[in-house]
Amino acid sequence: MSDVTPIAPATGTETAHHTESNRPPPMLSVVVPSVNGWSDLVACLSALERAESRTRTRLEVLVPERCGSAVRTHVSQRFPSVRLLPVAGTTTIPHMRALAIDMATAPTVAVIEDHVIVPEQWAQQIVDACRGDVRVVGGVLVNAATDSTVDWAAFFCEYSHVLTPRPAGPAEWLMGNNTAYARTALQECAEVVHAGRWENVLHDELRRRGIVLWNRPDIVVGHKKHYTVSEYSEQRFLYARAYAADRVRSSSMPSRLAYGAAAMALPVLLYARITSRVWRSGAHRRELLHSLPLLALFVSAWGLGEVTGAWFGDGGAMARVC
Q: Which portions of the sequence form the region Disordered (predicted)?
């Protein structure tokens, strides 16, 4: 079981869930950690609601929620069928996912983010894909936040690797915000699920156990997250610091110092890699050109984060990633 203890729910939240008892069992559990507030979450949950109603794919939506009572009240009133799981504000996203996975009841468990917008056919696509011997399926995502250059630069910085299409079939890696798992596969890897680490560690463990990761480029979701320059710079720094701290947590001090020194070259390498990927994809070249100055800032924050994480540890960064 997860070592994250849910906070007592707001009045009325549990009552709302009791109305679910007479409904058929869910076909798909969807885990949506709430870390960005109501404005992002309402769009995500509304899209899931449409996906369920239009395709009649019975969903169980689980929302571990760390933003506070205002968001929880909105969720319980607007989406009474959602299973709301209040947690402390310092709970990390991997631990929030683990808590919801423990409470999921459907045979298949999908994990998305609170700023992911699913199309109407998404739920049925996931259910259809996870049949037979297929135990892990991952789709792709496209940028749905296209209003500003900041949003494009943030998307390129984080997701340039998804712009080059990969064929359907067995894959070495999958994304963490449009992926579905057989619940039995997650149970087999329970120790890793609860370790508080990102999905790449789970996916490595699944592959080690002989479980195939299936890429499905036809299962597409939208990534709709709006940023300011300072917000995304901070998030890149925090994510990179947490990532580097996790990578070197068992390393000797000389190894940590060497990793941090090497990470000083990351901004140049990342800038070249990201711009090259986007340009070669042939898509969004105009947006890329407009994003170049911001990309330089964002990859600098990324590199600084890895240096800091290697030399000084996590420092609470993981709990602030959203």
A: 1-26
